[in-house]
Design a protein that fits this description.
The protein has 439 residues and is mainly alpha-helical. It has a 5-stranded mixed β-sheet with strand order 2-1-3-5-4. Strand 4 and strand 5 form a beta hairpin. The longest helix has 30 residues.
């Protein structure tokens, strides 16, 4: 059922976001043996590796990746229910699923094909495996999660040490879960950029400025009422010495601290990077709700449980409304992308656009245009912070200028450059830019 709903959601909106289009470009390049990661966001190996075999099929790869994220979002909610129910009963499972479902970023990341829904499936699946006594499976899932988020490397390494101390023997599966993901990440970074250390990179905009700002973003990544319930779960677990719940809390807090520290050190950070701890906090919220309701009579609990759910939804209502509005924006961006294809055709097609120079476009559509043109990301000029004095792009180039609100700043047009209008395709103005004579 989750698969049907997830795939069916592609009929509502089917466009990828900035980062996701970059992974599609890199997946295609990897399939051709020519990976070039310069000119885009930081690399995430897992989507590139998963989509690469599908790139010979054209747009099947992007659609398959997007469908996977939509399905993963639904599976993540189901896993939150399953893990919460195993730890605290039916009410805990229901509250955990509710908290995750209305979290600020789950719907948005699924809508635009970001990797966070799949990350949540891997992390919550690992917790479920650990609760079932399948520790090696849990390590494998967390290891794969390390191909999406590098802070998972630290978590897996620490958990491996904790697992090793009582048994004092090396397990090859556990060891591979620690070593292989960072090795793949650095190898692909080296292959794509010529250096294994170019990890501290992201598109210039939309990121936190320092660790304190990142911590503030973490607090806003989940409903306030859910955070309070999670705190209750930790206090109750400490009193009862419930190691599983305390371990979940420790991992969630460690993830937040690591992301904030990385941000302070210069690694790009944004709120959706807290997706994994949000999933764990959702489980803790469910357990905390069950512990709170256990203090009253069953008759009162039957009334209090739905009231608690309403309180959680009410505390997250602005987020729910914002997510609903994002769907209409995504549908408009789908139309923009279709019209961008028309704009490329109006300019003479792929070969004509690339022959004129490195095309320029609103920054939010750099990666999508690179996909349409079968070009590397560095082969398209994004106009971040573009002004007349500092346009941040150079002629000769065919310039695609679309709506600022949905695609980012339009390319600025200095007077010393000659612009010849080629036409208009939907919302896109298409111009040929050259330097004026004598300059």
């Amino acid at each position: 059922m989750s698969a049907v709903v997830g795939v069916g959601s592609l009929l509502v909106a089917h466009g990828l976001g900035y980062d996701a289009w970059s992974w599609m470009v890199w997946a295609r390049e990897l399939a051709h043996g020519s990976l070039a990661t310069a000119g885009g966001p930081s690399l995430k190996p897992l989507p590139v590796l998963l989509v690469s075999p599908l790139t010979p099929l054209g747009d099947v790869g992007p659609f398959a990746w997007l469908a996977l994220q939509r399905v993963s979002a639904l599976l993540a909610v189901l896993l939150a229910w399953r893990v919460g129910a195993r730890l605290g009963g039916t009410v805990a499972g229901a509250i955990a699923a509710l908290v995750l479902a209305i979290s600020p970023d789950l719907g948005v990341t699924a809508l635009y094909g970001s990797s966070e829904p799949l990350l949540l499936v891997l992390v919550l699946g690992a917790v479920d495996c650990q609760l079932s006594g399948r520790d090696r499976h849990a390590f494998v899932l967390l290891g794969v999660a390390g191909l999406i988020r590098p802070e998972a490397w630290v978590i897996v390494a620490v958990l491996a040490v904790v697992w090793w101390l009582p048994v004092r023997r090396l397990d090859p599966v556990v060891l591979e879960s620690v070593v292989v993901p960072p090795a793949i990440w650095f190898a692909m970074t080296w292959l794509g950029s010529g250096s294994p250390l170019t990890q501290l990179r992201g598109a210039p905009g939309g990121y936190y400025d320092g660790g304190l700002a990142a911590l503030g973003g973490a607090a806003g990544a989940i409903a306030a009422a859910a955070l309070a319930l999670g705190a209750i779960a930790v206090i109750d677990a400490a009193r009862r010495r419930q190691r599983e719940i305390l371990l979940i809390a420790a991992v969630a807090i460690a993830c937040v601290v690591i992301v904030a520290t990385m941000t302070q050190l210069g690694y790009p950070g944004t709120r959706r990077y807290f997706a994994a701890p949000v999933g764990l906090f959702a489980v803790l919220a469910g357990v905390g709700a069950a512990a709170l309701l256990a203090l009253v009579s069953p008759r009162v609990a039957r009334v209090a449980a739905p009231a608690l759910a309403v309180l959680i939804v009410a505390s997250a209502l602005p987020t729910v409304i914002s997510t609903a509005r994002t769907v209409s924006v995504a549908r408009a961006q789908d139309r923009d992308l279709a019209q961008l294809k028309d704009a490329v055709a109006l300019a003479g097609g792929r070969h004509a656009v690339l022959a004129a120079g490195r095309p320029a476009v609103n920054p939010g559509r750099q990666t999508a245009l690179a996909w349409l043109l079968d070009a590397p990301l560095a082969g398209v000029q994004p106009t971040w912070h573009s002004t007349t004095a500092r346009p941040h792009w150079h002629p000769p180039a065919i310039v695609f200028s679309g709506p600022r609100r949905r695609a980012g700043p339009r390319p600025a047009r200095p007077q010393q450059w000659t612009l010849r209008r080629l036409g208009r395709a939907g919302v896109w103005d298409v111009d040929l830019a050259t330097r004026s004579a004598g300059r």
